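Below is how a single chain appears once it has passed through the pipeline. First comes the sequence as given, then the structure the pipeline wrote out for it. We keep one example in the README because the format questions we get most often are answered faster by looking than by reading.
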Amino acid sequence: MDEIKEQIIHYLTKRKFLTLATSSHDGEPLTHPLAYVNINDIIYFSTGKQTRKYKNILKNPNVAYSVYDHTEHLDEVRSVQMEGIATPVTDKKVTQEINEMLRQKFPFMAYLTKDPEGIIIKISPKTCYFIDYTKGYGYKDKVKY
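Resulting structure:
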């Protein structure tokens, strides 16, 4: 695996929350803050089947998300900006594994992972921009998957 992909995975593993962008049925963009877990560069999250994000994903699986650290200084900006494909996880074994990972990382979410209306969503990466202004203003690495 190349060095930039390893840095992206490390960055994602050390964070807990992302902002997901989806498109509504009429093409309007929406953002959704959410908790996630990752296995390498694949993101997983739990949501309800009645949520807007789930309905949007069913209509258009093309999504984008960003993960970033709060900073007051522009020269400290680091983030992952990812474009990907979101799909519901249907494999029960994978669902159990991801729910356990969510319970470990977010103990307060234990009751959510048992919701019969809950579903795990997987985001497979397509293109990533790994932003790192500590290397210079505007610095970014682009990775295609």
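The helical segments are 3-13, 52-59, 92-105.

See the next section for the split statistics.
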